[in-house]
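In response to the reviewer comment on reproducibility (Comment 2.3), we provide here a single inverse folding case reported in full, input and output, so that an independent group could reproduce the run without further information from us. The structure tokens appear first.
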């Protein structure tokens, strides 16, 4: 009889050990899932809360439909002497997701055009004959417009600058 009682106690002890191991694994799994949720969801919520309405507006701006604005009339500039071409005619469209950027560009059109003309007049014709040169000009225009928007205290951003007409003669 003593042997049967010992076996029953051992089986009962093994069952408890298995139960404890299962509960411990479940607690670790739930703890890991909770920590992951905290870092992924809690961190983003803190940033949005810290940013306040500006963060919500920026998020809505990133998700809005693109708005395009053509800088009319097209730009016509003389290129520096010595190159294969003497003149550049360029039509530019700006893409944003915030309509206030378009209004700022319209309101400040003379100043914006002045700075763009100055940049375009400095371009070398030989550079603009290559795709890399045109992409470099596109980047320079994007940076220039972004800088002007910061100076004008415009909270929106320009997402892209596109050439809809590019003629060199």
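Designed residues, in position order:
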């Amino acid at each position: 009889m003593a042997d049967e009682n010992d076996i029953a106690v051992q089986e009962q002890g093994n069952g408890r050990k298995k139960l404890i191991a299962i509960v411990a694994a479940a607690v670790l799994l739930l703890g890991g899932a909770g920590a992951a949720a905290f870092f992924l969801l809690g961190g983003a919520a803190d940033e949005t809360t810290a940013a306040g309405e500006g963060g919500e507006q920026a998020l809505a701006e990133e998700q809005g439909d693109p708005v395009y604005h053509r800088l009319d009339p097209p730009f016509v500039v003389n290129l520096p002497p010595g190159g294969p071409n003497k003149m550049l005619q360029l039509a530019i469209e700006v893409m944003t997701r915030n309509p206030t950027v378009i209004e700022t560009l319209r309101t400040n059109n003379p100043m914006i055009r002045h700075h763009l003309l100055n940049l375009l007049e400095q371009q070398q014709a030989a550079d603009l004959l290559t795709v890399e040169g045109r992409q470099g000009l596109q980047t320079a225009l994007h940076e220039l417009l972004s800088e002007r928007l910061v100076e004008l205290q415009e909270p929106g951003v320009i997402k892209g600058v596109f050439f809809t007409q590019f003629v060199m003669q």
